[in-house]
Write a structure and sequence with these properties.
Length: about 240
């Protein structure tokens, strides 16, 4: 499949209210264009803060069951993170959920020590790449964006980098700059889905979510069609990856 239709939802997350947040996303999905992939922000059911650990779900909890229903109903891949308790540890876990109910996970590799996330959330140790409708996709979460070695696209192993985030407005310039940098240096599409609004701790978010092509250009709107044939042609003409350090 050469084309992939991607939609992101720049959600204003209701602090600590998973049911309200799932309902908001469900309403948005119902009104969204037909897509292959739908992305929501980091910790979309709770918001990001000191309260997260207390709201952790079991892996097979209500949010996974709900996302399975959404993926099946709209025949798409649903991508987002929520807090999961697994084997006695708590993870900020990104999930990609297929229409048939199967799913994969990636645990946030870089927990944000400045906010205290690293004190309550276990750090993931595995990098992941998965496939969907002929596209190779790399998942990442928020603070991971600052670590280019962690996201390095060795041997062009992925076509699309997905970032789910709660990135505050006070650092929006870093967010927008690094999204473009990761697209350009890795010769891939990038989708950065950030939350909007003000959270329960009074921290404002400007969103600045974007779909960015392999040249670093922002594609307009919240839905875009990605073209793998054009991506591969660009890589063949400009094989910068052959000179990676």
């Amino acid at each position: 499949m050469n084309e992939l239709v991607v939609t992101f939802f720049q959600q204003d997350i209701v602090w600590g209210n998973a049911e309200a947040n799932r309902h908001c996303v469900e309403e948005t999905l119902a009104a969204a264009p037909k897509s292959d992939l739908f992305v929501v922000p980091e910790t979309f059911t709770t918001g990001f803060g000191d309260h997260m650990a207390a709201l952790a779900e079991e892996q097979e909890g209500p949010t996974l069951q709900w996302t399975r229903r959404m993926a099946a109903q709209y025949d798409l891949l649903f991508v987002g993170t929520w807090i999961v308790m697994d084997a006695g540890k708590i993870y900020n876990r990104l999930h990609w959920v297929y229409p048939d109910g199967t799913f994969g996970t990636y645990d946030k590799g870089h927990t944000f020590r400045v906010s205290g996330e690293a004190d309550q959330i276990a750090r993931g140790t595995r990098r992941e790449v998965f496939e969907w409708r002929g596209w190779k996709i790399k998942p990442a979460v928020c603070y991971d964006l600052r670590f280019p070695k962690w996201l390095r696209n060795d041997n062009m192993g992925y076509d699309l980098l997905l970032l789910c985030a709660n990135w505050p407005g006070s650092r929006h310039e870093a967010w927008t700059t690094l999204l473009k940098a990761r697209a350009i240096e890795n010769q891939c599409y990038v989708v950065g889905c950030n939350r909007a609004g003000t959270d329960g701790a009074g921290i404002p978010y400007t969103g600045d979510s974007a779909i960015i092509d392999y040249k670093g250009f922002v594609l307009p709107g919240t839905t875009a069609t990605l073209d793998k044939e054009k991506l591969n042609t660009f890589r063949e003409h400009w094989p910068f990856y052959l000179d990676f350090d």
